[in-house]
Amino acid sequence: MRPSARAPYWVVGLVGLLALLWTVPVLGIFITSVRPYSETAMGWWRVDEVTFTLSAWKTVWSKYPLAEGLAASLKITLASTALTVALSPAAAYAFHYLKFPFRRVSLIVLVNAFVLPQQVIVIPLFTLWRQFGLIDNVWAVILPYVGMSFAWSVFLAKNFLDDFPGELIEAAKVDGCGPIATYFFVVLPNSLTSLAAMAILQFLWAWNSLLIPLLFLRTDEPMPVLLSRIAGTYEPNLDQQSAVAILTMVVPLVVFLALQRHFVAGGLSRMGLKG
Amino acid sequence: MPRQTPEALAALILVSPVLILFSLTVAYPVIETFRLSFYDIQGLSRPRWVGWGNFTELFGDPDFRNASITTVIWTLSSTAISVGIGFLLALLCSQAPRATYPFRVAFFATYGIAEAVSAYIWLGVLRSGDAGLLNAILGLVGLEHLANPWLGDTGTAIWGVVAAYSWTQVGLPLMLCFASMQSIPKSLTEAAFIDGAGPFSIMRFIVLPLSMPGLRVSVFINLLASLRAFDMIFVLTSGGPIRSTETIGYFMYRESVTQFKLGYGAASTMILLGTVVIVSLPAILKRTRGIG
């Protein structure tokens, strides 16, 4: 705890060592995927014999419907991210600046829905989607992803507007802009940082979720569902299973690592703390 | 009146897509789950009104009692472990904020991985026999007698799932607590040091109270996330062996989806929701008060 001018080396060394240990289990699936199963059956760390091979990466595409899985994941994730980012900031603007009936009560219900577990909505939604003929349709997953996101995304956008310069809004009003024009020409172009945070949170959540697509989709299942079906089966193909796991992980991980500063900021203001 | 209409109309145009979609996919299903919890629904036969019947049956159901106890163990231990490790790491990192940046990202990265993937990764750690990393390490340090089929043993499976889940969750408390600690003015700890305060007093009287905001939010987020957890349990153990890893969030799935007892499953979901609301009450009040 001694406040000192230079960084204590032992702290850096200790944290670095722990971080290394932390990532070892992840390293395991990368190594398993590029070695023949016969070598890693008793553990990927065995070095009795070490061969590098891409055979699992070549065969896994024909063994599992990966192209369809990746396409489904991309479709679901991009559509639900686009819809959340398109709809929430507009609603947040209206809640923040405009007067309309039931404004307060609908906002209170909306922003407090963040506590709801997915388990509370899935059964009635299943019945509803069956009536609409939406089972096994990607929209059966996209719509609840977007609907559930509003609880935090509208809150996040509204928190951002707390610090929005009021002079800009006033100036637009003086220039004769109506509320909708003010939103599109003044508020939206100046809200890009909050939109970025919102997009990352929704992208990761939509890509990584399991329960809703598990229940509502049959064919073209997104990657996490595909992985959950093959993980833990006793087929002797851990190399191929690991390849599927890596493909499931890599897209959100790249997005996450590239934009994690926004993620922390977004997470903080999503919880009502200023980032 | 003529001045009022355009504003209300504009608001309607901007807000209605959100409110319609929210009503359809969130509000209606929640109300419907509440309604279903008072019916006995077996497969395709006609729903029968049973009043509080499902709830009284739940309280007498040993499986539900087991799921409730598992939920408490799972929620409290995974929150304590995630926030505890996250806080300690944040404390270490705040001693060298710049140099430890890449390591913080490494810890945080597991939070960005799908739980299904993390579960698959941890299957490799907890696998029975020498093929599991944990057993291999125990063998390496001469503790092979402790080797165990971790996920196949009713006594240890829950701790295997808790460990895997905590591994995915540590990053967020780490980042939140770290942000709180960074906002403590350096002059405060320096002044205390000059006044002769030891590391323990600085920790107790300066760092801990001033990193409370981050710590409090971390505890809340982790409690909430683990109460609703499903993915990790589904992939690692499917609630087994012999329901030793079945939380209420998973019990609901088994009753509704695999047993088709929709009313019974809905009732257990309402109990989960009630628990979540009680835990979230301070946050709900804070949000509601913040709305002008």
Biggest beta sheet summary of chain A: none
Per DSSP E runs of 2 or more residues, the count of β-strands of chain A stands at 0
The CATH topology annotation of the largest domain in chain A reads as MetI-like fold
Series of H and E elements of chain B: HEEHHHHHHHHHHHHH
Termini separation of chain A comes to: 25 Å
Low-confidence stretches of chain B: none
Largest protein interface?
Answer: A-B, 107 and 110 residues
Proper CATH architecture of the largest domain in chain A: Orthogonal Bundle
- State the separation between the terminal residues of chain B, measured CA to CA: 23 Å
Work out the number of β strands of chain B: 2
Question: Which overall shape of chain B is indicated by the principal axes computed on the Cα atoms?
Answer: globular
Instruction: Supply the number of helical segments of chain B.
Output: 14
Global mean pLDDT of chain A: 89
Average pLDDT rating of chain B:
91
Compute the number of structural domains of chain A: 2
- State the fourth-level CATH superfamily of the largest domain in chain A: MetI-like
- State the helicity of chain A in percent bands: over 70%
Question: Which structural category do the helix and sheet elements of chain A fall into?
Answer: mainly alpha
Describe this structure in words.
The complex is a heterodimer of chains A (275) and B (292). In chain A, helix 3 crosses helix 13, helix 7 (139-162) runs antiparallel to helix 10 (192-208) and helix 10 packs antiparallel against helix 13. With 275 residues, chain A is mainly α. The model of chain A has no long low-confidence stretch (mean pLDDT 89). Chain A contains 13 helices and no strands. Chain A has 2 domains: 9-53, no CATH class; 65-223 and 251-270, MetI-like (MetI-like fold, Orthogonal Bundle). The two termini of chain A are 25 Å apart. Chain B has 292 residues and is mostly helical. Chain B has one domain: MetI-like fold. Chain B has helices at residues 4-36, 53-60, 62-93, 101-109, 115-126, 133-140, 157-169, 171-182, 186-194, 199-210, 212-227, 231-236, 248-258, 262-289; strands spanning 39-40, 48-49. Chain B has a two-stranded antiparallel sheet. In chain B, 47% of the residues are buried. The chains are: A mainly alpha (275), B mainly alpha (292). At the A-B interface, helix 1, helix 4, helix 5, helix 6 and helix 7 of A face helix 1, helix 3, helix 4, helix 5 and helix 8 of B.
